[in-house]
Amino acid sequence: MNDAGVITNVADTALWMAYIRAMENQRAGAVIRDPLAALLAGDRGRKIARSMPHSATTAWGMIIRTSAIDRLILEALPLGVDTVLNLGAGFDTRPYRMELPSGIRWIEVDLPDLIESKNAMLRSHAPVCSVERIGMDLSNRSSRNELFAKFGKEAKNGLVISEGLIPYFSNDAAAQLATDLYGIPSFCRWIHDFDDAGERRKMPRSWAQKLEAAPFLFQVKDWFEFFKQTGWHANKVITSADQSERLDRPFPLAFPLGLLMYALPKSMRRQVLSATGAVMMEKSRL
Ligand SMILES: C[S@@+](CC[C@H](N)C(=O)[O-])C[C@H]1O[C@@H](n2cnc3c(N)ncnc32)[C@H](O)[C@@H]1O
Q: What is the DSSP string of 214-238?
């Protein structure tokens, strides 16, 4: 048992995210109410989150992104969605915290140990719709494609979500995943977060050190063009700048990133905050 709050594998990043939602839950005027997040994050989630540098900025970014993805899901569901496939679901609790149609089929996929512990912790809690969980390493292309084929056949109108997953895939692996999802006719839409800062994005060294066991691998010059090449185009984009203004939740004035951000002219600050956000993608004809 690692008690020092060190990230030892990529699944630990899910504890970190859950802790951020647990903190948000306690906040007056929380934009995400996630009463199960503290249970799921546990003590390790707290230690991991507290050991990460730039914690206020990261929490802001995660809450902005999660709430933007919530909005996109609520826009997508009335379009006839019958199945949601959440890849790299981590300790996400949308089927417990959101008002979703009870008839929807919600499937979560993540690494086997994480899924086992999530199942155990949520055993006595009831989701608003049917939830299935699959423990699988999504980098195993043949098993994941079997899974996609099975759910693809059973779904009429599928929505894929992958929040915070793509950064842990190499460019080639992300392109394969996008191509494989594109190949399933009933997977009509895909919602995830984007980071279009391209080569301007430099991860602070202190962060890279903490994420040594779960490095960010995905780096492309043009995020939207990359996915367009695999057949997916952006249908609706919510930038962090838009969502931050909508929620009246400005970038935190925390040292040092907040000070650097507020030293920028407003238009440039908006430009920086528009390079990230959430997107709903649909298929183009290739
Ligand atoms: C940053 S967390 C995000 C979790 C969740 N979507 C959220 O927003 O709270 C990244 C998630 O991707 C999962 N993940 C990364 N690589 C994976 C892989 N190859 N197979 C399955 N899950 C993976 C991790 O286990 C982790 O739960």
A: S------S-HHHHHHTTTEEEEEEE
